[in-house]
């Protein structure tokens, strides 16, 4: 047994080792090993001497290599990410970006657009004011301090002519000021370092020799634009590339500074060529590339990426376009330039404009990517879908190609690697909708729900397009119960349906004979702001008035019809929303079926007020309702109303009223006159 005097000695030394860290343990490992040996020496558990020796060696080795790790460093968002993982999205809530002010949260697609633009405009205006007036925002009361929310320094602090002042202007993206400072340095005979020259060329070529428009700053039209250019930009009567061709001007500051450089390396050519391609000077970019080769310089991957994307713009036929792309790839191999993802994406994007060659060459390009170990991004697959969507034949449909793509991407989480990555999901769902493939549409949606793939849907406009196509596909192909499940899941947290989306829902209800849900849909129509769309309201009323239903359903339809009437009264001042003969007839008919004679009679008066003529069938039904209600006076008034519209049904209505109602002599006289007055018209 271990004595009481030995226990404190061991425990105290182990505690001291924990307090002083790994250095103490390594320094006193022999003392710790001796104590452990003493402890085990008083016990015998059947260990052989050989096993004891192995244990001692293992203990000795472990104590000599103990390394206590440093404190774990967590990311700044770790706590927020952990909290976010404990909750799920509330399908009944508005999107997060609109929850700052619940009163102003948009309820309709029009309000959604207005709110988004207003929010962005307000944010830009505030940033513009703060950045241009930093003297008013010198105090920071925020805890914790958030540097990105503090005003940026946009005013120039260095006024002397120096390279440091030039760097300051480049960092603040003052294109004109940077060019002026560079010219002053050259006039003073001061040499500018190559690194600063690179940064200046990058800045000028990126913004096409113009100062970038700051956020919140009013945008003015370029006075140098001709009237035709302004008309083309406003009306978009021509392609966007036509307008870009006018943005890169001959002998601009980028070309001038490039020619003044005492030494031109690949980086200088790269900035110039990429700027020319970005701003539409495609032929000039290839000419500059030829000049670079003549100067015995090797291009970089960025130059090749830009030239490949510009290849379709400088050739006419499909074969010529592909030959130029092939030539660039060959030169890339000869110059030992390693391609990257954007290189192959540029090839695939260019192939979309190569007609019949695209299909075969796209597959070869994809195989080459895999051979080099470059995984395609969503933009790669989007270009592939675009190629096969145009070149699809009876042998292989668009859905077949997308099926293969989805099998490849199933369960994968993506990060944005190409600006075109955000176009994939919209394109994929469009193919699902065109081919009416519901199962494939579910696969696309399940991929969106993996990880943070929802971020790859793009901006709010692209998200609306994607979910609109998905909901349209559901309404066409899915059972109504599942449609309503997705309807509650998507709206309003992810999707604000337009009038076409609501119309798709109405047709889905009609297909599955669930017209009893129309009153609840009408409430959503009002809340979504579509109660001013005459065509949508007409379709709703037509579905409710087309067939007769149970008394309970007819009662709910009548209540809904009265609410539709109130919507017309509220919106009667809006252009385009006017009573039509069919809408008045449908509401009147719905009220008659629910035995709401007084409200139906008020609707008949609206025919005369709005210069609309009621249908003969409606008057026949109204006369039958008067007979059921026992209202001879209302029947006489109905025949008189028909006569005021000069309807051919007036004599027939008068004859029915005389035969079916218990009338007074005065009433019979009135009806007899109306009956005889209508006979010549027959």
Explain this structure to me?
The chain is mainly alpha-helical and 682 residues long. Among the domains are: 6-64, no CATH class; 159-214 and 242-297, Tetratricopeptide repeat domain (Serine Threonine Protein Phosphatase 5, Tetratricopeptide repeat, Alpha Horseshoe). Helices cover 63% and strands 0% of the residues. The chain is built from 34 helices and no strands. It has helices at 6-20, 22-27, 29-41, 49-64, 78-84, 109-132, 163-171, 175-187, 194-206, 227-235, 240-244, 253-260, 266-278, 282-294, 301-314, 318-334, 341-351, 358-371, 378-391, 398-409, 424-435, 438-448, 460-477, 480-490, 499-511, 518-527, 534-546, 551-570, 581-593, 597-609, 616-629, 632-644, 650-660, 665-678. Helix 7 (163-171) packs parallel to helix 9, helix 32 (632-644) packs antiparallel against helix 33 (650-660) and helix 33 (650-660) packs antiparallel against helix 34. The N and C termini lie far apart (127 Å).
Which labels suit this protein?
682 residues, mainly alpha, Serine Threonine Protein Phosphatase 5, Tetratricopeptide repeat, 34 helices, 0% strand, elongated, disordered N terminus
Characterize this entry briefly:
This protein is an all-alpha fold and 682 residues long. The chain is 63% helix and 0% strand. It has helices at residues 6-20, 22-27, 29-41, 49-64, 78-84, 109-132, 163-171, 175-187, 194-206, 227-235, 240-244, 253-260, 266-278, 282-294, 301-314, 318-334, 341-351, 358-371, 378-391, 398-409, 424-435, 438-448, 460-477, 480-490, 499-511, 518-527, 534-546, 551-570, 581-593, 597-609, 616-629, 632-644, 650-660, 665-678.
